[in-house]
Amino acid sequence: MGLWARIKRSVRAAFGGIVEKTEDPEAILQQTIRDMRDRVPELNNSVAQVMATEKLLAKNKERLETQVVDLDSKIKASVKMGRDDIATAYIGQLQQAQLDLQRTGQQLDHATNASKQALKARDNYVLQMQRRSAEAMQLVNQSKQAKLQEQLAQTMESFHIGDDASTFNEMRDKIDRRSAAAEAKMQLGSASVDTQMQEIEREALDMQLQDKLLEYKRDMGMLGTGSGSQPAALPAASEERGEATAGNDRALEGNRARNVQ
Questions:
Q1: Whole domain around residue 234: which residue ranges?
Q2: What does the alpha-carbon distance between residue 112 and residue 105 come to, in Å, rounded to a whole number?
Q3: CB 251 within 8 A of CB 193
Q4: pLDDT tens digits, residue range 127-186?
Q5: Same domain flag for 135 and 93
Q6: Whether 39 and 96 share a structural domain
Q7: How far apart are CA 71 and CA 75, in angstroms?
């Protein structure tokens, strides 16, 4: 292969690729439909001209037929009047009119066939245009659907690459770590020595309030002989509270010893 042929092939390949990239199937199909629709008025004009020729020939044929009948009547009248010279002139005109009538009839037949063919061709073109238009619209819809699928594929591809997904995963892990740390701090805070000391102080305060209430009832005489069992139960309750307090003190001392260790 020669150098010039190779250069020409390379140029055609380069420009062909550029043209192929710039081609928009939707725009090309829509333009094709518009071109086909623009040809319909031209076809209608052509059909109208053929039909006009047919009508003109039909009128000429009617005129010649009338002329033939009129010349025939004049020939007969001239013969009756004994004017052979006039009758001979009319006969010549009649023969010419008959020849013209014959040619006009043939032309009219051809024009009639041409009109029928032109109408049929116009109708076939319109049907073909409608079919092509419907097919083009279907292809346009397929092209739009293909574009949407391409955009969806690109979007899904970006998710598969991990751009946004990795960000979500990182943020989720970070939030989980913060939540776990906060729960651990809350658990440690609830089990700390200060919390236990607050519980002991609150229990001691409740005991003092109960003792003060019993003292008021005793002073007011509300703890009589009929409720002798209640004073007996008070020391037991006091002993139970004392044992609970001692248990809490031992737990507090144990926690302090573990903290020291």
A1: 192-260
A2: 10
A3: no
A4: 888 888 888 788 778 777 777 777 777 766 665 545 556 676 777 888 888 888 887 777
A5: yes
A6: yes
A7: 6
